[in-house]
Specification:
There is one protein chain. The chain has helices at 15-27, 29-43, 55-69, 85-92, 111-120, 137-146, 200-207, 219-230, 237-240, 263-296, 335-338, 367-375, 387-396, and strands at 48-52, 76-79, 97-100, 124-128, 151-154, 162-163, 166-167, 174-178, 191-195, 303-305, 319-323, 376-379. Helices cover 38% and strands 12% of the residues. The model is unreliable at 204-209 (pLDDT under 50). The longest helix is centred in the C-terminal third of the chain and has 34 residues, at 263-296. Helix 1 (15-27) packs across helix 2, helix 1 (15-27) packs antiparallel against helix 10 (263-296) and helix 3 (55-69) packs across helix 4. The protein contains 13 helices and 12 strands. Strands 1-9-8-5-4-2-3 form a 7-stranded mixed β-sheet, sandwiched between helices. It has a 3-stranded antiparallel β-sheet with strand order 10-11-12. By secondary structure, it is α/β, with parallel strands linked by helices. Strand 2, helix 4 and strand 3 (97-100) form a beta-alpha-beta unit.
């Protein structure tokens, strides 16, 4: 086992917050959920909040709701490159899918591609802050409103990001939050669906009443303790070296039933919110270091940094960069992964086999998404980084 193995991302927690969450959930679980709901409603200007079993379940419910409110035969609009959980949610909601392309240099929706998807007809448009990169939410809302289509904001990776002074998570008719491992905000699972305007009523009165809690378990607490203990570089090599855990691998997960968020994850998410905000500030500082290092050796490295549309507004859950050519750890030793250099989503969503029967549009080129799938890597930005970690990764990315 390597002595130091960098986790690709980090959701901060402490033993104190874990014990506090355990106590809060045991004493008054309903109050723990209410505290988190009120925190999210205030922070993200939401009219209604549903706490659910995961961010993917929240997106599944949002897609299902948009289909019930509009034409159920219309497909859902998805980015052609994103987290595979978007595909899981679409399949779970039984929705056909139509894709739009991304700008591979800023991770923003390609305007002409979005306009075409909206003109062709969708029940809703899903857009998200990949790695905490901000989007032009004002323009996306304008486009969606012009076609009478709700905007679903996937803010699962948005912690620490903002746009025009508002935090990422504040912009969709429906917004998805995630407190899963690696999302920057520790809740050890769980997610939230935030509702605004007309989108709030149907789910608020019917959908929530049909949901139930998943099977009670000590698993969230055990997982949180393991994450707190093993999620640091000195020990992360232990779980990362177990093949069955598939840590660091990008996987398609089959849909699961939509359930309510457990009391312990809700209590933990409420207590770790200040830690998540502080961690986001550290990530921005480390992201600037990566940007300076990659710019300073322009032409001598295999990768160049991506640029958010508003640099100071990015949350930098990870630092994305584009390889100059398609290559996967030329050392052949796994050194990239140990340094936290990761190929995140190696397939564009239209190429995912589980979506083969759900695509509503004929095969089309998505050059931005394809370039990202072939060449995107991410570098860690979390608070565990030391100067030697920066140097190590830069050496690995050297052309020499």
């Amino acid at each position: 086992m390597p002595i130091r193995y960098q986790p690709p991302s980090h959701s901060p927690t402490t033993l104190r917050t874990l014990l506090g969450a355990t106590t809060a959930a045991a004493r008054d679980g309903e109050r723990a959920s209410r505290v988190l709901s009120e925190l999210l409603a205030t922070t993200y200007s939401a009219e209604r909040v549903l706490l659910l079993g995961s961010g993917t379940q929240a997106l599944t419910l949002a897609i299902s709701s948009s289909r019930k409110q509009g034409d159920p035969d219309r497909p859902i609009g998805l980015p052609a490159y994103s987290c595979y959980d978007l595909a899981t949610a679409a399949v779970g909601a039984g929705a056909a899918v139509r894709f739009y392309d991304l700008d591979p240099l800023s991770l923003t929706p390609e305007p002409d591609s979005v306009s075409k998807v909206l003109s062709d007809g969708v029940s809703a448009l899903v857009a998200g802050n990949l790695f905490g990169f901000p989007l032009d939410w004002a323009e996306l809302r304008r486009l969606c409103q012009g076609h009478g289509v709700p905007l679903i904001e996937d803010a699962a990776q948005a912690m620490g990001s903002s746009f025009q002074g508002k935090p990422g998570g504040s912009f969709g008719d429906m917004t998805i939050l995630s407190f899963g491992r690696g999302k920057g905000w520790a809740g050890c699972g769980g997610g939230a669906l935030l509702l605004r305007g007309a989108a709030a009523e149907p789910i608020g009165h019917s959908g929530a009443g049909e949901l139930s809690y998943g099977s009670p378990s000590i698993r969230p607490l055990a997982s949180s303790l393991a994450q707190w203990l093993l999620g640091r570089p000195a020990l992360f090599g232990l779980p990362a070296s177990v093949p069955g855990l598939k840590i660091g691998e990008t996987l398609y997960r089959h849909p699961s039933p939509v359930t309510l968020m457990g009391r312990f994850p809700a209590a933990l998410a409420a207590k770790t919110q200040p830690l998540a905000v502080k961690e986001a500030g550290i990530r921005r500082v480390n992201a600037q270091k990566w940007a300076d290092l990659l710019k300073g050796k322009d032409g001598d490295l295999l990768a160049s940094p991506l640029r958010p549309i508003e640099e100071k507004s990015a949350g930098y859950l990870r630092f994305p960069a584009l390889l100059s050519k398609e290559v996967d750890d030329p050392t052949g030793t796994g050194a990239w992964k140990r340094a936290g250099v990761n190929r995140v989503y190696p397939l564009a969503l239209p190429d995912l086999p589980p979506l083969a029967g759900w695509k509503s549009d004929p095969p089309a080129p998505y050059p931005g998404a394809e370039r990202l799938a072939q060449r995107l890597i991410t570098l860690p930005t979390h608070s565990f980084l030391k100067d030697t970690d920066f140097s190590r990764a830069i050496r690995l990315l050297s052309r020499s």
